[in-house]
Amino acid sequence: MSTRPSRFLDASTPPKLATLVLMAGLSALTMNIFLPSLPGMAAWFDVSYGLMQQSVALYLALSAALQIVIGPLSDRYGRRRVLLVSVTLFLLATLGTLLAPNATVFLICRMAQAVVAAGMVLSRAIVRDIVADAEAASMIGYVTMGVSLVPMIGPVVGGFLDEAFGWQANFALLLVLGIGVLALVWADLGETATLKKASILDQMRQYPALLTSRRYWGYAASAAFGSGCFFAYLGGAPYVGTEVFGLKSSEIGMLFALTALGYAGGNFFAGRFSVRMGMNRMVLLGTIVTTAGLSMLLVLTLLGLSGPVMFFGLTIFLGLGNGICLPNANAGMLSIKPELAGTASGLGGALLIGGGAALAALAGVLLQPGSTELPLILLMLASSVASVVAILLVIRRARALGLAA
């Protein structure tokens, strides 16, 4: 744990909170800024929406795979070095999306953009390097609250950029912002990890020590299924907005902000009350909030009361629940083996994003021409119920071990 005071733009000290937020924020923005453009991008490349929607699922899938090695790499070579290389590669991939002559090349470059996931993974690991368990959940909550502003405005900006300049404007903005983040990481991010002499393979051999922990698996499963609702939403909501409700890309972008608004509120609540209530209770509360909101949406849809305001508006509970759950579930994963914070964060992120990729892809499969929003709602609700079950099993295990529940 670092005891050096933090000084802004001094790379010999740990980074400022704003730097962590911007690192993770670039990763979050890359995931969702272009979502309102998906139907237009499909038309541009003359491919089906289902194929272009795979730019979400494929990105998430590669992001999951990369997170398995990002953690051990950062434990071995340092958070700073891994981040600098990752953001540089991200810039090259983003340039490729702008120059892509066809959908195949675009999807390859889009997948390569997933390397920016290092910003999200290592912002959590850096927090764990700097502060202890209870404070880590609180600080991660504040970091992700700041990050939540990005997906709140990202689709809004993306929708307007799409209408004004075309889908390429979204990726041009990512290129400019990536250059800024690279400069900030270079100037402000001091190394926070205690570097390990073990090889990457030796570190990855320690994965079983994490995966054989029922509590680690429970936290990871709760986070994966909880966020899986959101990833399914990312994969299916653009279709629902355009094909079911007939909305324009700018309107979809603005409605996406409702979910992010709930996420910001949940993150604030997590930052304020995690230390007082404890990680497990906060994860349970978050998963219950999400499940209750999606259950309400299902009932109203079955009663024929659904519409764009109802569908997108009730997803504020999806954001609120995830905002409460995820900081605490992430802190719980990192608390199992504090000496493997980078590895634990990367592996947990891989499980979370991998599950999200599968659900985003499944949303694309379920939403065929003529579909209503009902298949997407059922998929999100099933994932949320699974997250409740997972954290209840964690609480049961903690009580059996005599730990705080």
Structure, explained:
By secondary structure, this protein is mainly alpha-helical. It has a single domain (17-400), classed as Growth Hormone, Chain: A (Up-down Bundle), CATH 1.20.1250. The chain contains 16 helices and no strands. α6 (117-130) packs antiparallel against α7 (133-165). The longest helix has 33 residues, at 133-165. The protein is globular. The mean pLDDT is 83.
Give the CATH superfamily. Answer: MFS general substrate transporter like domains
CATH-derived topology: Growth Hormone, Chain: A
- Which ranges are low-confidence, i.e. pLDDT below 50, for 5 or more consecutive residues? none
Shape: globular
* Average pLDDT taken over every residue: 83
Question: Alpha-carbon distance between the termini?
Answer: 25 Å
Query: Main sheet, how many strands, which sense, barrel?
Result: none
Share in β-strands: under 5%
Jot down its keywords.
405 residues; mainly alpha; Growth Hormone, Chain: A; 16 helices
Detail the topology: elements first, then pairings:
Layout: H1 17-32, H2 38-45, H3 49-77, H4 79-99, H5 103-112, H6 117-130, H7 133-165, H8 168-188, H9 200-204, H10 207-211, H11 214-244, H12 249-277, H13 279-302, H14 308-336, H15 341-366, H16 374-400
Helix pairs in contact: 1-6, 1-7, 1-8, 2-3, 3-4, 3-5, 3-6, 3-15, 4-5, 4-6, 4-8, 6-7, 6-15, 7-12, 7-14, 11-14, 11-15, 11-16, 12-13, 12-14, 13-14, 13-16, 14-15
